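Practice record 12: protein with iron/sulfur cluster.
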Amino acid sequence: MTLTEKILARAGGRAKAQAGDNVWVKADILMTHDVCGPGTIGVFKREFGKAAKVWDRDKIVIIPDHYIFTADSKSNRNVDILREFVKEQGIPYFYDVIDDPNGHWVFDPARGQLKKQYGSNFAGVCHTALPQKGHTRPGEILFGTDSHTCMAGAFNEFATGIGNTDAGFVMGTGKLLLKLPETMRFRLEGRLQPGVMAKEVILHCIGEIGFDGATYRAMQFDGPGVAGLSMDDRMTIANMAIEAGGKNGIFEFDAQTQAYVDYRCKLNGTRTSYEPVERDRVEKCVYELTVDLSKLEPLVACHPDPGRRKPARELADIKLDRAYIGSCTGGKTSDFLEFARVIRGKRVAIATFGVPATPETVHDLQSSRWGDKTIWEILVDAGVQMTENASCAACLGGPTDTFGRMNTPMKCISATNRNFPGRMGHKESQVFLASPMTVAASAITGKITDPRGFLS
Ligand code: SF4
């Protein structure tokens, strides 16, 4: 069996299962957020009754992160609905924007868009927050009402996005009927070269198979090259499995996975026991691709889909209006460090927005120093508009007052994960997906730029 088949067979109480089987599986975690949470709660109440209780309150994680730092009243109301539901159900894992369980978030104009507007429990973007807060464990099943839930496959678990109807059902029963996906295998060899990041690995793979090339399939990443990838790298790669239509992305378990998960679970007091899955000697895969990481070069996925991969060096004539670093995929501390490595001591030539994925990243960047300056100061000195309000921000467009949103047609290079028309705001804008290093180099020149020329 493949890694995905093994996890799903076990969660369905079976010794064996294969692609195409329909299996009832038990959920270990159900995650929802401010966009889909209210809809999920609505389905749950409609189907199970107004007074119904969730199947297991310790297994539900609620993370407002999408449309939160906005004056849009409907968006604010969504978070209020989550807060009321959490109180009613006694759900412990709710990473609210404010500390007062009876309060209501209001925009503080004195702080504006750049200064922190959240309380002590806030966790930032759901997919980055889940592992940081100790909710991702090897061998488990994670369902989330968001397509990039597949990011947690980095931790050797089955993680996938589901719709509100399915999520309402899981909320009431803890189970879901799944058709087991076929597996596509991506065998990674070698090591990434300077100037090349994990983003290149996934842009390369999607470029090979197209933006629908893995539709309802598991993308399994294994091989000797995995050892040289950090957990952040693996998250970046697994996150974008959905950009090829994948049901999930999944990595092998190793000592790095164990160290990360054990540390995070202990730190947050979440469950520390888990059972990873290992590869069988014989696996049935419907596709195999070997990727030599040492041969990859900086890549860009061109407008209008994540499969339009081209080398950055071939796109030097594309002039840009904007650069953006942020999101679950590209707003982690390690992403900002690589971005800062390129941008340090220089000035950006175009409007450049930086949105950390989580408050932890804000803290990391404001407390780590290179010489006499913090990373945060280095970025601000270079002209990057850095906000402390960790969130999805303009990755998904959002209300018109969203930080970094493209409200007019423009060309943007972005460390995010999706570039379909209208994704970051205006439907005639164009988004070019790239690594944080390529975004940094392009912000400096105002054109799409291979970052290798900026490395000392
Ligand atoms: S940062 Fe972007 S991709 Fe990630 S959860 Fe938010 S909107 Fe989705």
